[in-house]
């Protein structure tokens, strides 16, 4: 059929094949054994790219060049990702969010800053029971540091008991050597 189209219409082989929808079949050796060995090496040595796989194959006595090794490596879909994205939100394994089932299971605390009409600034530490949405404490001051956080938590813990979970953000107020002594009282 392709020969007929080429001889009567004067088209190239490629164009004739496209018209007739008959594609060229390669007569090259598919090298199935080599591909299988390449897959074995890639699965046992996961971090190896095609260059290292090529070196191992050459040591074993296989006859192939770098370009052929790369082509077969790609056809077998053994490629590694060259670089990981900088922000890997989807890759991070997520810890299931803790849902409190009763009061005093989990507390949340955060700092809020504001200023008065005369321009003086102040901060408030708010501690909230996550289950009941009850404000357990609000500490107000111009300079609230780690010691203030510890004393507020200890006062509430004496009155209500310590929570199982405590949610905080990554603020500098919630880190430091003083915070390690929470709920000592």
From TrEMBL:
Residues 99-185 form the Integrase catalytic domain. InterPro entries: HTH-like_dom (IPR025948), Integrase_cat-core (IPR001584), RNaseH-like_sf (IPR012337), RNaseH_sf (IPR036397). Pfam families: HTH_21, rve. It comes from the Bacteria. One of its GO terms (biological process) is DNA integration. GO terms for molecular function: nucleic acid binding. This is Integrase. It comes from Pandoraea horticolens. The lineage of its organism: Bacteria, Pseudomonadati, Pseudomonadota, Betaproteobacteria, Burkholderiales.
């Amino acid at each position: 059929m392709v020969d007929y189209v080429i001889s009567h219409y004067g088209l190239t082989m490629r164009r004739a094949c496209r018209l007739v929808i008959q594609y060229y079949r390669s007569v090259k050796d598919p090298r199935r054994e080599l591909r299988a060995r390449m897959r074995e090496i890639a699965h046992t040595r996961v971090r190896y790219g095609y260059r290292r796989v090529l070196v191992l194959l050459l040591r074993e006595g296989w006859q192939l060049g770098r370009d052929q090794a790369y082509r077969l490596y790609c056809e077998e879909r053994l490629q590694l990702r060259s670089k990981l994205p900088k922000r890997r939100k989807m890759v991070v394994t997520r810890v299931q969010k803790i849902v409190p089932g009763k009061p005093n299971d989990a507390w949340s605390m955060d700092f809020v800053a504001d200023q008065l009409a005369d321009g003086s600034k102040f901060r408030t530490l708010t501690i909230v029971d996550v289950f009941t949405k009850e404000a357990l404490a609000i500490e107000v001051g111009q300079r609230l540091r780690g010691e203030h956080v510890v004393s507020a938590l200890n006062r509430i813990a004496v009155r209500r008991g310590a929570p199982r979970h405590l949610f905080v953000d990554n603020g500098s107020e919630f880190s430091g050597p003083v915070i390690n002594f929470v709920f000592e009282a």
